[in-house]
Design a protein that fits this description.
heterodimer; A: alpha/beta; D-Maltodextrin-Binding Protein, domain 2; eight-stranded mixed sheet; two-stranded antiparallel sheet; 10 strands; globular; B: mainly alpha; MetI-like fold; about 75% helix
Chain lengths: ~425, ~280
């Protein structure tokens, strides 16, 4: 009897010990559905081999669904996620609220100084790095080298808006269904307003002055919108007010656009011979300027952040450090080739001679470096953000203004009316929110 | 003469009905077609899409990347669970409203329906907080309760209109024969209302299956149904139409088949009471 009891006790103890040794931490990672993130999910074996005690559970969602979900969760401290993929828009706002764990104590071999300054600047709040960049992007001009040659023009590395207009005019062949320029027209703060806000920076416009007064009644915004409408109405594809990134990508891949100004990440799509009919005829240039010292390109990064209050901070940090490390970039290069490495986060990547062979590498880096989220406009402004204003109200405001501008493109209102409406609406909202005293 | 007019009229009505039916079904048909194309072909002009090669590539990729069966099972549990629970509550409620109406029954019915008119996102934060505090986030039981409550007004309304059609005299006769309330509902009313209950059940299974706000907001992985499976394939930056179409087709296929086989009951249930 005694023996049996002892044996049972012994078994229990050894089972408990074995259980403790096998105990693994499961972390839930919320992420967006884009190529780089999906690729990482396929490379998790490498992480598991290094950290067998951490199990990663993925929740992949469409960007807007994800944004709503993680915002609800973090604002209510729901604790559903241990790592969240957030944009450069959320990072400063959430960081200021104290919702994110500081990443200042990442190990030395993480080499935080290697992060691109423009990207790191947008993710630092009061000296704390609140999110680690996974991939960064800017916007640039993608153009058809064959059509440019046919038009008798040479695209400079850093074109002006006037050149873009001239090239669009010469490349347009409406009978042959070739349109000189394709730009975003679909309403939304991350759709047409991302493009138009970045474009307006180069025209010397801004959303707000130092007293948070909206500036849509000023000449630079009038110039921006008129120029955009003129460009699109004369040389753009029909129905452009419904076009977002995907629609323009499809048009460009089918050879219907002479030029397209959009996210640098598009470069890998349009040069991929599997999907693109023009893969070998694409050139790249910096986003245009107006000679005022600012270019019309944006800056965005998808970043990994850890919500404050997670029970699994250590495991989450280990994962974030791995996913955004130099080693991870090397791992992707080894398994999938250099062109598939997540771009735009680390200086060392662009110093790598292998990576320099990727055709759009240099232009991506130059574009990112040409954007400064802390000084986005020609004049001084009270906000951070290139193609957005990092205040919680911006999502709503941006989308509402986007609808007015999209309506102007569709021809249902005039540029003047759209700007007047925007000015009135934004003034009301900013007064209500207490920015305008 | 009059017969001829009727024949022509019938032909016109038939053609119109088929045209409208086809127009409504077209997006689903197109989704199914795109799911059998490669990503490159899926974005071509419509005619080129039809003539391009067919492949199962997208289905393979979707299968590889996600656990379809897990999501499918969650959808089944959520939609059936919430519908059965709703019926359990709604049958007695509809019985009392139909056969022993009070002064305020009509108002009560309207009030119940009015809860459907509020935008769901308006109560997102309070709901999320309650779920957090009760530990119900990402659990099937929590979602079953929410979906039950969401569809309860419709279930009560449908059953109510159905029960109204049943002559009260039959129930009276049963009572005279000594049936108590329980056996009256169980053995007289329910069997007579089976077609109505069946169509209510079907419609609510479909509604719960397609519910895409709460199921997305309140789940992460364990309880995530097919709505989240679809959402993981949509992307504003990157063309994944073929994969998205394949995921959508896989998500709607079960309910499409169910709807196909039960369309008679569905139509009957939906139009019942409307011809009075």
């Amino acid at each position: 009897m005694n023996m049996t009891l002892r044996a049972m006790l012994g078994a229990t103890v050894s089972l408990t010990l074995a259980g403790a040794a096998l105990a693994e931490t499961t972390i839930t990672v919320a992420t967006v559905n884009n190529g780089d993130m999906i690729r990482m999910q396929g490379l998790m074996d490498a992480f598991n081999a290094k950290h067998p005690d951490i199990k990663v559970e993925w929740v992949t969602l469409e960007e807007n669904v994800l944004r709503q979900k993680v915002t609800t969760d973090i604002a209510t401290k729901g604790g559903q996620f241990d790592v969240m993929t957030i944009g450069t828009y959320e990072a400063p706002i959430w960081g200021k609220q104290g919702w994110l764990v500081s990443l200042n104590d990442l190990p030395a071999d993480y080499d935080v100084d290697d992060l691109l300054p423009a990207i790191r600047g947008g993710l630092t709040v009061d000296g704390n790095l609140v999110a680690a960049p996974f991939y960064g992007e800017s916007s640039m001009v993608m153009y058809r080298t064959d059509l440019m040659e046919k038009a008798g023009l040479t695209m400079p590395d850093a074109p002006s808006w006037d050149f873009i207009r001239e090239a669009a005019e010469k490349m347009t062949d409406k009978a042959g269904e070739v349109y000189g320029i394709c730009l975003r027209g679909k309403a939304g703060w991350g759709e047409n307003m991302a493009f138009l806000t970045a474009m307006s920076n180069s025209f010397g416009a801004k959303w707000f002055d130092m007293d948070w007064k909206p500036q849509f009644d000023q000449q630079p915004w009038k110039d921006t919108l008129t120029f955009y409408l003129d460009l699109m109405n004369n040389y753009g594809p029909p129905g452009a007010s419904n076009n977002g990134f995907n629609e323009n990508l499809a048009l460009f891949q089918q050879g219907k656009c002479g030029m397209w100004i959009d996210a640098t990440v598009a470069a890998s799509f349009v040069t991929n011979p599997k999907d693109s009919t023009v893969a070998d005829k694409v050139g790249f240039a910096l986003a245009p300027d107006k000679g005022l010292g600012k270019r019309g390109n944006w800056l965005w990064a998808w970043n990994l952040a850890i919500p404050a209050g997670t029970q699994k901070e250590e495991a989450a940090k280990t994962f974030v450090a791995w996913a955004t490390s130099k080693d991870y970039l090397a791992l992707v290069a080894e398994k999938e080739g250099w062109a598939n490495v997540p771009p735009g986060t680390r200086t060392s990547l662009y110093a790598n001679p292998e990576y320099q062979k990727v055709p759009f590498a240099k232009m991506t880096l130059d574009s990112i470096n040409a954007a400064d989220p802390t000084h986005p406009t020609v004049d001084e402004v009270p906000y951070v953000g290139v193609q957005f204003v990092a205040i919680p109200e911006f999502q709503g405001l941006g989308t509402a203004v986007g609808q007015m501008f999209s309506a102007a493109l569709a021809g249902s209102t005039s540029a003047e009316d759209a700007l007047a409406q925007a000015q009135a609406m934004v003034t009301t909202e900013m007064t209500r929110s207490g920015y305008i005293k | 003469m009059s017969r001829k007019t009727t024949a022509t009229r019938q032909a016109v009505v038939t053609v119109a009905a088929w045209t409208i039916g086809f127009l409504i079904f077209f997006p689903i048909l197109w989704t199914i077609i795109l799911s059998f194309k490669s990503e490159g072909d899926a974005i071509k002009a419509p005619l080129d899409v039809l003539t391009s090669t067919w492949s199962l590539e997208s289905y393979h990729e979707v299968q590889e990347r996600s656990n379809y069966l897990k999501h499918f099972w969650n959808s089944v549990v959520l939609s059936l669970g919430s519908t059965l629970l709703a019926l359990l509550i709604a049958i007695p409620a509809a019985w009392s409203m139909a056969f022993v109406p009070g002064k305020r029954t009509k108002d009560l019915l309207m009030w119940m329906l009015s809860t459907k008119m509020m935008p769901a996102v308006g109560v997102l934060v309070p709901m999320y907080l309650m779920f957090r505090d009760f530990g119900l986030l990402d659990t099937r039981i929590g979602l079953v309760v929410v979906l039950t409550l969401i569809n309860l007004p419709i279930v009560v309304w449908m059953l109510y209109t159905y029960f109204k059609e049943i002559p009260g005299e039959i129930l009276e006769a049963a009572r005279m024969d000594g049936a108590n309330l329980r056996s009256e509902i169980l053995y007289i009313l329910t069997p007579m209302a089976v077609p109505g209950i069946a169509s209510t059940l079907l419609l609510n299974v479909i509604l719960a299956w397609n519910e895409a706000f709460w199921t997305l907001q309140l789940t992460t992985s364990n309880a995530a149904p097919l709505t989240q499976f679809i959402a993981s394939y949509s992307s504003p930056e990157g063309l994944f139409y073929a994969k998205l179409s394949a995921a959508s087709t896989m998500a709607i296929a079960p309910i499409l088949i169910l709807g196909w086989f039960s369309q008679k009951q569905l139509v009957r249930g939906l139009t019942f009471g409307a011809v009075k």
